[in-house]
Write a structure and sequence with these properties.
By secondary structure, the chain is an all-alpha fold. The chain has one domain. The protein is 79% helix and 0% strand. The chain has five helices and no strands. The protein has helices at 4-21, 24-27, 36-58, 63-86, 93-117. Helix 1 (4-21) packs antiparallel against helix 5 (93-117), helix 3 packs antiparallel against helix 4 and helix 4 (63-86) runs antiparallel to helix 5 (93-117). The longest helix is centred in the C-terminal third of the chain and has 25 residues, at 93-117. The protein is elongated. The termini are close together.
Length: 119
């Protein structure tokens, strides 16, 4: 059975790749305008997240996996904070910001559980 971190990484990479292809799938639920600029920004973030997801999915147990988890968590928490600021006053602010933070917490939890289980 693959590690929980590998599963979280695979989910991250798959979700990010899908949004990379169709940025409106993320922009519209966030209540953001779908423009050339917003699509470019989403694609930039999703490209980063595909790389981080692949790193999580393929990193061997130990130091490399811990670093991959740390990178993913840092990226997601930074995204959550940036979205909270950018969407100040918007109805969807909490949900959008929380969803970014939850991805990071899922990856962190997976990493911790894998470490404890010796995976």
């Amino acid at each position: 059975m693959p590690s929980l971190t590998a599963l979280a990484g695979t989910a991250t990479a798959a979700f990010s790749a899908a949004v990379l292809v169709a940025p409106a799938a993320l922009l519209t639920p966030c209540g953001l305008d779908v423009t050339a600029s917003s699509r470019a920004l989403v694609r930039m973030v999703c490209a980063r997240d595909v790389v981080l997801g692949v790193a999580l999915a393929t990193a061997p147990a130990g130091r490399l996996r811990r670093r991959a988890v740390a990178g993913r968590v840092a990226a997601d928490l930074t995204d959550a904070a940036a979205l909270a600021v950018a969407l100040a006053g918007e109805r969807r602010r909490g949900l959008v910001s929380a969803s970014a933070a939850v991805w990071g917490l899922v990856c962190l939890t997976a990493g911790v559980l894998d470490e404890r289980a010796g995976r």
